[in-house]
Amino acid sequence: MKRPTRSELMAKFHDMAKRREPIIGGGAGTGISAKWEEAGGIDLIVIYNSGRYRMAGRGSLAGLLAYGNANDIVKEMAYEVLPVVKKTPVLAGVNGTDPFTIWDKYFDELISLGFAGVQNFPTVGLIDGVFRANLEETGMGYGLEVETMRAAHERDLLVTPYVFSEEDAVAMAEAGADILVCHMGLTTKGSIGAKTAKTLEECAPLIDS
Predict the structure, then answer these.
(1) What is the pTM assigned to this prediction?
(2) Is residue 30 part of a domain?
(3) Is-contact 25 37, C-beta < 8 A?
């Protein structure tokens, strides 16, 4: 599949927005998941490390823990997913706080594999409390994810970051984000869905703010 350019994708998505059509993106942990998502008409497919853990029967928050190298896992999954996707843009979930990633080289690899864009996952945005404060204080905070998304934008990749507050949204927009994805928490269904979650009615005003 020819990798769609950022300008091509944004022209399509702006047109959809004018028609008030929802832009639907979804994660794929296997080739068959991606294949059927595309058959269903999805607009964006995202590969991130938590997809592999989900397919192994684990919760998606496993993707935030030290069970594997998130950026390497995404490259491995690319060989399963990208060959079976015919026309839908595929994005890579990248761990922007990884201190062992050489980003220019990594983006070269993503582009050569056929990824059309990136999203910041795993993300420290899902972490709060003392642990989050310590991450921020020791140079492993959300700001690194903002800079990684900025670097991806400069490589003309589609950038669709998760944001968790108005401050996050402003920072990512200024970094060149194309689509802001307001993260409202974990899903509640499935075999291991979360019990603590916001309702759709609660989410709407938060997103609008």
Answers:
(1) 0.89
(2) yes
(3) no
- At 161 the three-state DSSP class reads coil
Classify residue 165 as exposed, middle or buried by CB count within 10 Å of its CB (0-12, 13-18, 19+): middle
Q: What H or E segment, with its residue span, contains residue 191? A: none
pLDDT digits (tens, 9 = 90+) for 85-112: 999 999 999 999 999 999 999 999 999 9
Residue 125 lies in a domain: yes
3-state secondary structure of 137: helix
Whether residue 12 contacts residue 87, with contact meaning beta carbons closer than 8 Å, is answered with: no
Domain span including residue 73: 6-208
User: Residue 37 belongs to a domain with what CATH number?
Assistant: 3.20.20.70
* Domains in the chain, number: 1
> Roughly how many angstroms between the first and final C-alpha of the chain, as a whole number?
38
Q: How far is the C-alpha of 23 from the C-alpha of 141, rounded, in Å?
A: 29
Q: pLDDT tens digits, residue range 46-67?
A: 999 999 999 999 998 999 999 9
In a domain, 1, yes or no: no
Q: How far apart are alpha carbons 107 and 11 in whole angstroms?
A: 23
The Cα 199–Cα 135 span in angstroms is 29
Residue 199 lies in a domain: yes
